[in-house]
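User: Hi! I have a protein structure encoded as tokens and I'd like to know what sequence might fold into it. I'm fairly new to this, so please keep things simple.
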């Protein structure tokens, strides 16, 4: 566990996965099909985590590919705007395209239309992973979507090997998106392998249940993964809070209820808040709660990367909120 915590406390992360363009209907409450105006911002799980870490005072570098076009350049510009290191973001030509998500700020019948045919981020290669200077970072972070297709799958497992050789812990956000995978069986096998090779695993009850072969088996799967010495597992349960498995202990934490305007972005903000809080010296229970607060902040506002809180915004939220739910 010390290797994991020490790596996080360096507060500089190499993050693997996608960047995309988000377009969300404006104003809040308008359905996409009735919108006259959309706002554009950075999107994609890994890019959101990068932005969230930077806004909370950390450093992050995204390792990915984007299409060599206006949308790819938009994403690189937005990454730089949020303070993310883009030296490992490669432009790819041909028919590959940067992901686009079109959604709205409403909870009832929420719609998120994602365009990922020929996704540019799946084009990262082993050679690109070998070019990363792992000594610059304290930990590697990846979202599970990178494993859905080749060459990205093999390349990211290569990054895992490189990280281990460099003494870096691996942090894995399961982030299962069925539409990206050729089959559920392949997804379960590959995501389980990624979990076995990681030091910190974060996922929700459905994702752990998926890896285990049934949602009723998800908690047992989390306990099984956490049994490896030095590994931490965070099992998220939505409105019911989370259970964190670390050093043989089970830490149960609640959530910070808010009036949500959308469901997406919560997991990315949780990850950023959790890691930034550990890096800032908070104990594990407090860090998980601060991650939960970050998730609540993001779902209460339109957008994702732009809604990620700064440290001052997080502290103000914690000071004004009555506190987490009992668990």
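Assistant: Happy to help. Inverse folding works backwards from shape to sequence: for each of the 327 positions I chose a residue that suits the local structure. Here it is:
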């Amino acid at each position: 566990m010390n290797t994991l915590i020490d790596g996080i406390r360096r507060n500089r992360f190499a993050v693997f996965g996608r960047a995309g363009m988000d377009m969300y209907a404006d104003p809040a409450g308008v359905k996409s099909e009735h919108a006259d105006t959309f706002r554009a911002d950075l999107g994609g799980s890994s890019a959101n985590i990068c932005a969230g870490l930077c806004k909370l005072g950390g450093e992050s570098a995204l390792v990915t590919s984007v299409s060599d076009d206006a949308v790819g350049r938009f994403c690189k510009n937005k990454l730089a705007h949020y303070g993310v290191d883009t030296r490992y973001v490669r432009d790819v030509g041909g028919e590959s395209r940067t992901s686009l998500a079109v959604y709205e700020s409403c909870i009832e019948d929420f719609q998120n239309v994602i365009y990922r045919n020929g996704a540019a981020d799946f084009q990262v290669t082993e050679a690109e992973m070998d070019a990363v200077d792992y000594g610059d970072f304290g930990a590697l972070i990846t979202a599970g979507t990178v494993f859905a297709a080749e060459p990205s799958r093999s390349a990211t497992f290569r990054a895992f090997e490189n990280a281990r050789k460099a003494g870096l812990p691996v942090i894995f956000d399961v982030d299962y998106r069925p539409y990206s995978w050729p089959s559920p069986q392949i997804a379960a096998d590959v995501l389980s392998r990624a979990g076995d090779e990681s030091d910190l695993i974060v996922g929700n009850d459905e994702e752990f249940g998926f890896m285990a072969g049934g949602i009723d088996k998800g908690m047992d799967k989390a306990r099984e993964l956490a049994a490896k010495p030095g590994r931490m597992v965070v099992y998220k349960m939505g409105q019911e809070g989370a259970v964190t498995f670390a050093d043989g202990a089970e830490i149960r934490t609640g959530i910070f209820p808010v009036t949500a305007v959308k469901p997406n972005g919560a997991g990315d903000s949780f990850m950023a808040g959790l890691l930034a809080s550990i890096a800032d010296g908070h104990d594990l229970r407090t860090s998980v709660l601060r991650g939960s607060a970050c998730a609540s902040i993001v779902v209460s506002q339109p957008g994702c990367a732009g809604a990620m809180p700064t440290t001052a915004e997080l502290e103000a939220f914690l000071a004004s909120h009555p506190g987490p739910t009992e668990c």
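A useful reference point when you look it over: The two ends are 25 Å apart (CA to CA). Feel free to ask if any position seems puzzling.
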